[in-house]
Design goal:
The chain is α+β, with helices and mostly antiparallel strands. It is built from ten helices and twelve strands. It has two domains: about 160 residues, Gcn5-related N-acetyltransferase (GNAT) (Aminopeptidase), CATH 3.40.630.30; about 100 residues, Aminopeptidase (3-Layer(aba) Sandwich), CATH 3.40.630.30. The chain has a twelve-stranded mixed beta sheet, with helices on both faces.
């Protein structure tokens, strides 16, 4: 007699019917709404978050970028994935950008990940990344079976307007040539710090080509102290309610003076004024979660660890 597990089906690269899309949208909303940090937000803010997730699922379904675990017509787990090319080394990669599962269906989520990894290897991808909730240590443990390890963490916070007693800073949007040159140096250094290799070849050219100074949804901020440029931040205000802090960098000679926190607060207030309700960033800690001191600092400033990004080589895992 076949077991329940035997009856489970994994479907990838499909354009599902409306009822299946609605089921995935509900699973995504339930996973988001279950987080205490999201529950603490204003109900209107949380509703906007649900709408953003629904739009993400609908767009992925239209582009046949959904992978599902289904048993007896019930969606147990779902993933949204996309193939691309690494901008620096040009290697092919597959990124599972979202992974959700019903309560108790973690094995089904891992089955979806394993199938996408297998297919990525067959397609010649050298990099396979999975972004998933940090709520489940079991996911990271099970993912080791297919050669995935921690790569970095995604942090998230709810934005707010400044209070009357919160004074403006000397931070401004990047404008003149000196500020742009400083911004490019900071971004290049930040990219090198985030690489899993030490070779910085091509980084400066990549950063310069990637920055589109005149694009309305990209914002480069600089902070001055006594006339000196001391910190830089780069934010992308994409579609939906979430903005992404891609980099906040303070040169070594200016570190330890609170400039990162000062500029970060300015960015939060400014981007909230431009319509964003949430801000996301990344924390690179190698293979381990952030240490107690870093975690306490993030929590004290309103951030929480929202997702973990796992990384592996599907070609190596297949051998």
């Amino acid at each position: 007699m076949p077991s329940d597990r035997d009856e489970e089906q994994i479907e990838c690269g499909i354009q599902p019917e409306a009822a299946v899309v609605a089921a995935v949208q509900q699973i995504a909303a339930d996973a988001c709404g279950a987080r205490p940090e999201e529950q603490a937000a204003d109900p209107t803010v949380l509703l906007t978050r649900f709408r953003d997730l629904a739009d993400v699922v609908a767009a992925a379904a239209a582009e046949a970028q959904l992978a599902l675990s289904i048993r007896d017509g019930v969606v147990l787990a779902a993933a949204i994935w996309q193939d691309g090319v690494h901008p620096l080394d040009k290697s092919r990669e597959r990124h599972v950008q979202h992974l959700w599962w019903r309560p108790g269906a973690l094995p089904s989520a891992l089955a979806v990940v394993a199938e996408l990894s297998r297919r990525a290897g067959e397609a010649g991808c050298h990099v396979f990344r999975v972004t998933a909730s940090t709520d489940s240590d079991a996911l990271r443990g099970l993912a080791e079976d297919i050669g995935l390890a921690n790569h970095y963490f995604v942090t998230r916070k709810v934005l707010r307007a400044p209070q009357a007693d919160e004074q403006p800073t000397e931070a401004t949007l990047t404008t003149d040539a000196d500020e742009r040159s400083f911004a490019l140096r900071c971004l290049a250094a930040g990219v090198v710090n985030g690489l899993d290799r030490s070779d910085p070849v091509g980084v400066a050219e990549f950063v310069e080509k990637s920055l589109e100074w005149d694009q309305a949804e990209r914002f480069s901020y600089v902070l001055r102290s006594d006339g000196e440029l001391v910190a830089h931040a780069y934010v992308v205000r994409g579609s939906g309610s979430t903005a992404t802090l891609f980099d906040l960098f303070v040169p070594a000679e200016y570190q330890g003076r609170g400039y990162a926190k000062t500029l970060g607060r300015h960015v939060e207030f400014d981007i909230h004024g431009r319509g964003a309700l949430f801000l996301e960033g990344t924390v690179v800690t190698g293979l381990r979660p952030p240490g107690p001191a870093l975690l306490a600092s993030l929590l004290a400033d309103g951030w929480w660890l929202d997702r973990v990004v796992l990384r592996g080589n599907p070609l190596a895992a297949a051998t």
